[in-house]
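Following up on my earlier thread - several people asked me to post the actual chain instead of describing it. Fair enough. Here it is, all 250 residues.
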Amino acid sequence: MAVAWSFMLLLAVLAWVLVVGQASPDDDMGMEPGTMGLTLPLFLLFWVIMMIAMMFPSVAPVAVTWVRGIGRQSSSGVVRAARTTQFVGGYLIAWATFGLFVYGVLAVAGNLVDGHPEAGRWIGAGAFLLAGLHQLSPLKNMCLRHCRSPMGQLAHYAGYRSGGARDLRVGVHHGLYCVGCCWGLMIVLIPLGMMNIAAMAALAGVIFLEKLWRLGPLLSTAVGVIFLVLAALAPFQSWLLPGLEQHTGM
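Reply from S.P.:
Thanks for posting it. Predicted structure:
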């Protein structure tokens, strides 16, 4: 199982390298309203890379447990690798689907801020408010319990009919629970900046601890309260909204 752990973490590290490489300190890409000037296909590609960087460390235990189950059924390393790839692919499909929604929100937010710069403070406040309410919601608790219990998940997945796409369906199923657990954390990148590396790293840390730390549910509640406080402050504190401020070139 060390190979599976190493593979997942290596992909996460490579994704972080790509993300940091794109977040050039010499420009404001990713720290301005809108879709960063990206077309939808390019945005989804970048979004998937972001999800690999931020989510793979916390999803690795589930993937590794699934690989262990695959190992009992398949003696061929090639077959195990192919089925694991399907699982990971299904997981990323779920997040890519959510990325479509994020792209639409960014496009609308960018247009609003272009026409009405003051709208940014209320968009930011709304994002923090939604994120805070989600962190404290029954949906968050239900999805977090699912993500924190990989063995319970596998007992459910064992009932899936075997077939060429079973692992893909399992990955999508788990990915949808993961989206349900973490979408609130992701939308705060709208006011903070989609390529705000510090914010991404902090959120990745929260996600990792929520899912793997024994006090994860308590942390989730604390983060929700913090987001509600930020929602109250956002209309009056522009430093909380770097991703919704217009930047003028020289």
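The radius of gyration is 19 Å. That should answer part of your original question.
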